[in-house]
Model the fold of this input.
Amino acid sequence: MSETNKRHDEAQLEFYSSYTDMGGVSPRIIGHHILPVHGRAPAVTGQGAAIVRVMGNATVTVKAEFIPGKASATEGADTAQLSGHVENPAEPPALAEVLTRLLARPKYRDAIIGDREEKFRVHVAKWGRKRAVRMYWTDTLSSIGPQLYSALKRLGWFGAIVAGLKGFFGG
Amino acid sequence: MGTMKGSDLGSVEQHVLLAVFRLRGKGYGVSIRDEIAARAERDYSLGSIYAALERLEGKGYLTSEEGEPTAERGGRRKLYFDITAPGKRVLQDALNTTDKLREGIDLGGVPA
Done:
């Protein structure tokens, strides 16, 4: 058997504890991803980086969760650098949140986003991230009609656009 | 033309008012939605719930109060709603109207 076909339980690897600039949050272990020694990990999306030391030139299976953040990784002779798009399973979809910000009245904006995030976390624990994201989007999209109607009734077209822009820029 | 007692409440608003009343000051977006889903088997989006809450608060039928921020909500506060005296009155009127309208009606085999 060649080194690259080594089974994960045969491969020796370790996580460095020196993750750099990960927003103060250390990665923790959650699921299986196939991580090529060189190149991008196909199952990993989001932003961030980690250094995995691999003994030998092996393909390994590791469990890892990466918290989004800017990170730099140094390459060494016996290190594999993972970089790419990393998504935190506990984070709801950002674009859907922006949509809510655009339409919700400022008084209720944080409450509705918080409510949706609370449900999202329950759904992630119950059904996994993929289904939770789908449910989050379903609720967001089916909320557009009532929220838009409410905003137009309250503010008119021009006012609703101004309020939406304010919401987008965090006002 | 007759009076319009309670007639300014839509069905979503009635459901939301009833859920807020049942939750006795502990009603916020998620709990109101869950209460309606559990009892009435209606799955409203949070946008629909909040649109109704906004209208009801605007009419003086509800009051709201911020709770503490919690981690599972990304550090955001809950907004708790409670029903006011005019809210109870208008809800009672709306329910009375429905009761009067359905009095003596037999829908003949249609399951309740």
